[in-house]
Amino acid sequence: MSQAFMIAQDLHKSFNEHKAVDGVSFTIDKGEIFGLLGPNGAGKTTTIRMLSTVLEPDSGDVTIGGYSIRHNADAVRSIIGVCPQELALYEELSAIDNLVFFGRMAGLGSREARDQAMAHLELLGLKERARGRVDKFSGGMKRRVNLAVSLMGHPELLFMDEPTVGIDPQSRNNIYETIEGLQSKGMTILYTTHYMEEADRLCDRVAIVDGGRVIAMDTPRELRSQIGSPEKVTLEDVFLHLTGRSLRD
Amino acid sequence: MIRPLLVALLQVRIYLQDKGDLAFSLLLPIAIFALTYGAFGGQTLFHGTAHVVNEDQGGDYSARLIQRLEEVDNLDVDLLSASKADAKLDRADLLMVLYIPVGFSDRLASGEQVQLVFKQRGNGGDEGQIVASIVGSVVDRMAQEFQVQGQVNEYLSGSGISQEQIDITVQRLLEGERESPAVMVKEETVGDSPDPVNEFLPGIITMFVLFAITLTARALVEERKKGTLERLLTTRLSVGQLFTGKFLVNLSRGFIQTLILLLLSYAVFQMFTPLSFVESLIIAIIFIAAVSALGLIIGSVARTEDQATWIAVFFTMAMVMLGGTFFEIPESGVLSVLSKMSINTYANDAFRTIIVDGGTLADIGLQMGVMAGVAVVGLVLGRAIFKVMPGGR
User: How far apart are the first and last CA of chain A?
Assistant: First the structure.
């Protein structure tokens, strides 16, 4: 029997009258890559912001590694890493300075932060550019620095919110390989993306959310088999089948 | 305690990366000082310019009048053509011009009454009125001398003394009278003259420090815009530590800028003793702390950089106006009550007590207490507002 590392129970979050998240529940097992898929405005980012302790849920709770985000948020923060959808870097500084700073904020000592920073930059193919200013980097390099920052402190659970948006295939492939490598070392990952083939390749299980609710949750293969032959049907077919073809804001 | 310091150090490093920003922030106090010096550092006695149109070209008496005006202390003479002077008056570049009319010397020599003309816009301005008064007294004296010369000529006509000898003798006597008049005016100075630097510098320092409120307010908003604020909120950095870091960096920057301003004032105006200089620095630190805390409140409320800037500008202007920076606040009435709500009032009072009145820190306990209180309450309130605003925790 697998061990649930993260348990989200009946999460609700409204902004004024708008219900952004409306009763989301799911679990993520230790070492699992869990995909959170959904059209724009489905509630993915709000869910991640609650899971990562930035937003407080209106109701419901989340436990990560046994710690409640409501009652022990600081302990939760000590075991999570967040790779946000938008680049969140000090672009005036070098890549290594960004990593070291966020490492120190994650509780690392000076030496340890520097060692980890170099290791993560090497992992993401940025060792040679460690001292380069981030604002001089290409979009793909910035995305990789963004990911490298989230690895500082070796989090047990990593939230990745659309980490491959707008980058070249080489950088995207590097990020895939990094994620797979992290999983092989036991890291648990919550992954959101709009690229269905990406979710199909990386995720052990996915949840499809729409209108703030989870409307389907299973392995990609099982989801595909629900609407046809899993060899012929793509995850994108499943996604469109479940969420409809109407355009979203 | 290490995390707030790291946050502050990071901000300093970013600050140092932008050479333009760095140069601007260091040059700003120097520029403020230069403006202060330009406004108050020169001589405080009147010095004006008489703008003159001499249409009596080649005339002896008009030349003498201009020469006499040039001999007046604290008065420069600016000779203009009539067309240029008219154009400048039209544009209000000049407010008062003296016109010496055509034939001025000839008509004077022939015994006719002559007229000088002052053309002015409105009341001619303060300087124009003083210059007109000086010109009037010079003309009066010349007229009297002319009359003396005429009467002596008339009295001695037919006496056999040559006209040239009469003229030389009369001129020598009149010059003697000018150099050593029968009635002299002696000026006695009682006490020190009010020093505008002493009067205004405290207000200028507090106003300058208050400008930093915009930078503090923007610091949080910029962090939010970059996305780094939210990322920081998922680390082990507490909001209190984040606020402390931002507070420390703004305190340091404000202190360095104010130190430059005070050092320049010390060196050029000699307005401090070593003790009052140190006391002024202590006031400055506490005032900067209060201002930084207020900036963090604005940064917590504002959602965009523009919002932060405009709230800060409005707040700054209100505090400056109510703080008695540019005009003295009456001791009673609505303005007096309102001024008590301005942090600048307390800072200005404290600086004036030390710089102008020669007081000590013991004399400004209330002002220091209020400023320190604003710093503490500002930090606590800013933290509380940050928590309840969207995106805070």
Answer: 41
CATH class of A1-79+157-162+195-244: alpha beta
Tell me the per-residue pLDDT of A24-77, one tens digit each, with 9 for 90 and over.
999 999 999 999 998 888 889 899 999 999 888 999 999 999 999 999 999 999
B236 contacts in chain A (CB < 8 Å): 74, 77-78, 105-107
When pLDDT is cut at 50, 70 and 90, the band that residue B286 belongs to is very high
For residue B117, the SS3 value is strand
Q: Which residue of B has its CA nearest to A46?
A: B391
B360-381 burial by CB neighbour count: b if 16+ within 10 A, else e? Answer: ebeebeebbebbeebbeebbeb
- CATH number, position B55: 3.40.190.10
Cβ(B230)–Cβ(B242) below 8 Å: no
Range of the domain at B281: 2-41+193-388
Which candidate, A73, A27, A36, A31, places its Cα nearest to that of A179? A31
Residue B280's pLDDT is 92
Write phi, then psi, for B338 (nearest 5 degrees). Answer: -65, -35
Contact, B55 vs B82, CB < 8 A? yes
- Candidates A77, A86, A92; nearest CB to B236: A77
Residue A64, beta-bridge partner list: A6, A67
Q: What residue segments make up the domains of chain A, in order of their start?
A: 1-79+157-162+195-244
Tell me the angle at which helices B365-388 and B343-355 cross, rounded to the nearest 10 degrees.
150
Percent of chain B with pLDDT over 70: 94
Residues B200, B160 share a domain: no
